[in-house]
Amino acid sequence: MSEQTITLDSRDEAILLFGSRDQHLREIRAGLGMQQLVGRGDQLILRGTDEQLSQAERVFAQLRHLLRQQGTISNEDVKTVLEVVTQGGERIATTTPDRSGEVGSRYVRPRTDGQARYVRAMRDHDLTLCIGPAGTGKTYLAVGMAVSWLRQGAVKKIVLVRPAVEAGERLGYLPGDMVAKVNPYLRPLFDALNDLMEPDQVKRYMDNDIIEICPLAYMRGRTLNQAVIILDEGQNTTVPQMKMFLTRMGNGSKIIATGDVTQVDLPPHTRSGLQDAIQRLRDVPGIALVYLDESDIVRNPLVQSILRAYEDDRPRKRKE
């Protein structure tokens, strides 16, 4: 048996992390099967096997991260993190027909603890808001879950939505039909679909209206039943647009809204609908709010360095 001590930032952090009457610590100790896990002041005393201590480190690192973001930790948070650390990320099965026409399966698995929390949140909630920087798999995993649910027959339709604001052009000025007009804005969603399914299958589903692409403005007045509705680049919605989008949910449907609140392309002094939704809905039961960060980036490792370099250039608030 090995022993380890983790020193927390403050006694206040310890109180929130330990839970009422140390209930969070008891849950973690039982979940990991540790010999000892006690809190003393601002310290955690851990005793167990090397593997148990390693898992405990990951559990507390994630819970401290959630605490900084949310200001509190629930029993559900503790159970979610324990499941992620002890069982790993669940596989997402997507359907891909081979050349003979037979249907096989391709599996996508979360590659970080944060991504695994995201997948579990989508599985267990009808509405999931995911916030994180580029490269954390927000869009890819959402599309993967949607394809998996479609394959299982849990839903009958996938609707991909994105606000068309990046290029500063109106859709009417772009050539072609609706698909051609919206294609440049929905390219990341198409890339994910074509990676998870055969392009011919994607085309067939689109022709049969099983997969639909839709500009955000065209969602007004609709109610979507038994559908997965994915909003990409949600930070570029206005508050009324986000309200309109979130209320399109019908019976048996799931909504996933993703975005990076540090990359808002709206006009100056326009509040982001995603930022607003985070504040309004954070305490609403049945809604999952998931934060991903640099540690969840699964692109080329240089992406993390690039993001940090640009973070250093951000204007800092002047001290009063």
Give the class from helix and strand content and strand pairing. alpha/beta
User: What composes the largest sheet?
Assistant: 6 strands, parallel
What's the pLDDT, averaged over the residues?
Answer: 83
Uncertain runs: 96-104
Oligomer: single chain
How is this structure best described in words?
With 320 residues, the protein is an alpha/beta fold. Helices cover 42% and strands 19% of the residues. The chain contains eleven helices and eleven strands. The strands form three sheets. A six-stranded parallel β-sheet has the order 8-7-9-10-6-11, with helices on both faces. Helix 9 links the parallel strand 9 and strand 10. It is globular. 35% of the residues are buried. The model is unreliable at 96-104 (pLDDT under 50).
